[in-house]
Amino acid sequence: MQEALRFQPVDAEPVDHADIVVKPRHLRRVTESVARGLALTIRGLRKAFGDNEVLRGIDLHIPSGQFVAIVGRSGCGKSTLLRLIAGLEAPTAGSIAFDEEPRAQDVRVMFQEPRLLPWARVLSNVEVGLGRERASADAQARAERALVEVGLGDKRAQWPSVLSGGQKQRVALARALVSQPRVLAFDEPLGALDALTRISMQQLLERVWRDQGFTAILVTHDVAEAVALADRVLVIEDGRIAEDVTIDLPRPRRRGSAELAALEGEILKHLLEGSEDTL
Amino acid sequence: MSLIDSLPRVGAPKLPKIDGLIPWIVPLVIVLVWQLACVTGYVPSRVLPAPTDVALAGWKLLLSGELIRNIWVSFWRASIGFVIGGGIGFAFGLANGLSQLSAKLTDTTLQMVRNIPHLALIPLVILWFGIDESAKLFLVALGVFFPIYLNTLHGIRTVDPQLIEMGRIYGMTDGELFRRVIFPGALPSIFVGLRFALGIMWLTLIVAETIAASSGLGYMAMQAREFMLIDVVVLSILIYALLGKLADSASRALERLTLSWHPAFQKK
């Protein structure tokens, strides 16, 4: 017993301390995980609100299925970039092109607030995510599958108001996933959660991303979160991409490992230097 | 196990029965004190008849059919006026909450009319309609209109814009957005308007019936005053209280039914 414990490999999957229910294997959509994500190319993207130019020329290519994190100080334009990619805002100049014309349900957004309908049960809230396919015969079955996927199968008949913050965010994730999107944009989805719930949510995000193979774009102010989850971290400064860091570390990554800490330190240093310039 | 654990369990099963009665303790005590004051002669019966005398007067009117007829007439007027005024108020609230053009066109006018106390129109209304049914209906409808209009408008304007954005992102059509997001979001506020309106409905009707009518509860009270039947006057007043309570309970029940998602209405 002692021996077995001692010789566990160093990179063994960390134990999930939080309340995520381990999903049965047979539910994973193995067939769909093959390059479902859309690739996107951004050229000369600018966005101004009145006189305030928030994005000043972004050029970026995100390959299919990549997990990209966007970090930067408040007001640097990272959320605006995300909203442009998700089609919530129209660019002032420049273009965003996907390798295939996405259908409405191919691009989904998850916000910092869960934005659940308080007057709809958890399952109906997830069904909202089906968009126009809501009326189809298998809508309920699909919504139930998505709920099981985020470990909330037993909460289907609850009102959102009785759920915890983390659970609400998981329902929002199920709603975003239920249409099997090919691009999923996260706008600080974990910003309002406590530290432990955050870590379990990060693991959940990583797992669904690996299962479903969508292209993930995560805006966050937490550099540790960015380096733990992403293949690539973009640092945005004054409306431009100031740094493009590739995180080439095997998954699952161990939180608190030396490599992650080093990368985090490097990016943080860059961000802090930037802020000193403006002081 | 411990003493503390066992304590609430002993009291718990009895609680619900008592719980329903608690609100009635104060009215009951008031009636008892009132009866006692009258029986002992502390309050002379020309000032305030004893509850038993009031009950007796009520019984007599009930037997003659007069009471039921008058209550029915008042109830009918109240309902029709409420449906007309509430319906129009709700329609304007929806229109002005959903359409900028409609709001620009009508809101200023409505706000000006709102500031005229509707009971001040009674002389004009009598000149227009006489003491016909339509006079009472008009006044009730006018009184009910504004609380419903204002609260519907407020409810729709204050629906969380983040939820509306969410609905649009997930491809809801305008109709769906209204049905699934805007209307349920405005509902708590609409109910506030409904309960205000119910209060104003009785107030307006009674005043109108007292001043100009030939039937109804207000008329019954005024007739009784003419003949110095103070027990009937007090009876009428008590019936107003009961009808008001009834309307309030009905709207609360409706609220509980439709707002079961709301934390404030969830059963503990």
UniProtKB/TrEMBL annotation, chain B:
Species the sequence originates in? Bradyrhizobium quebecense
Q: Which domain of life is it from?
A: Bacteria
Which Gene Ontology cellular component annotation is one that this UniProt entry carries? plasma membrane
InterPro entries in the record, alphabetically? MetI-like, MetI-like_sf
CDD domains, per database record: TM_PBP2
UniProt keyword Transport, yes or no: yes
Q: Does the keyword Transmembrane apply?
A: yes
State what protein this is by name: ABC transporter permease subunit
Q: How does it sit in the membrane?
A: Multi-pass membrane protein
Q: Which UniProt keywords apply?
A: Cell membrane, Membrane, Transmembrane, Transmembrane helix, Transport
**Which GO biological-process labels does this protein carry?**
alkanesulfonate transmembrane transport
Q: Where are the transmembrane segments?
A: 21-43, 71-94, 115-131, 137-156, 177-194, 200-220, 227-247
The entry assigns this protein to a family as follows:
Belongs to the binding-protein-dependent transport system permease family.
Function description: Probably part of an ABC transporter complex. Probably responsible for the translocation of the substrate across the membrane.
Q: What sequence ranges are listed for the domain ABC transmembrane type-1?
A: 67-248
A Pfam family hit? BPD_transp_1
Could you tell me where this protein is found in the cell? Cell membrane
